[in-house]
């Protein structure tokens, strides 16, 4: 019984990551793309099935998880983990956005010096993602 409690969430994580496999392989057209769509639909319905079976199977009840969380004192730890994840993922996203926008802005500025203001706006929008993540992590830390 305890093994099922750990395997079902692991299965849900695997099913949620399944749509990334065709993206990683670079599948865009043809028969492989049709298989990728079927792959994504199967993963979606698999996650839906697990979400339906967990509460009805009696494997996890809200009272048990609340008591276990209160006993372990993990709510503060999960809050710190959430704040760290928000900050790190938003900074990675901002880095990807700036890595794409900054070279294009430099290229546009080298061809037309009047385009500097417009190009700078796109680079600043990418940096805004990191600021939003930092703001959300500060709000999370204030609730702990």
Automatic annotation (TrEMBL):
GO terms for molecular function: proton transmembrane transporter activity. It is a multi-pass membrane protein. One of its GO terms (cellular component) is proton-transporting two-sector ATPase complex, proton-transporting domain. It comes from the Bacteria. Belongs to the ATPase C chain family. CDD domains: ATP-synt_Vo_Ao_c. Keywords: Membrane, Transmembrane, Transmembrane helix. Signal peptide: none annotated. This is ATP synthase F(0) sector subunit c. Pfam families: ATP-synt_C. Coiled coil: none annotated. One of its GO terms (biological process) is proton motive force-driven ATP synthesis.
């Amino acid at each position: 019984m305890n093994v099922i409690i750990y395997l079902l969430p692991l299965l849900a994580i695997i099913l949620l990551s399944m749509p990334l496999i065709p993206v990683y392989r670079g599948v865009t057209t043809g028969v492989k793309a049709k298989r990728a769509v079927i792959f994504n639909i199967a993963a979606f319905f698999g996650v839906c099935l697990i979400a339906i079976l967990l509460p009805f199977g009696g494997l996890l009840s809200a009272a048990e998880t609340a008591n276990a969380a209160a006993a372990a004192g993990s709510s503060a730890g999960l809050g710190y983990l959430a704040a760290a994840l928000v900050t790190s993922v938003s900074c990675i996203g901002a880095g990807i956005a700036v890595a794409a926008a900054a070279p294009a802005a430099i290229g546009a500025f080298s061809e037309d010096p009047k385009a500097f203001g417009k190009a700078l706006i796109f680079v600043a929008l990418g940096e805004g993602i990191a600021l939003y993540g930092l703001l959300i992590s500060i709000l999370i830390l204030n609730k702990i």
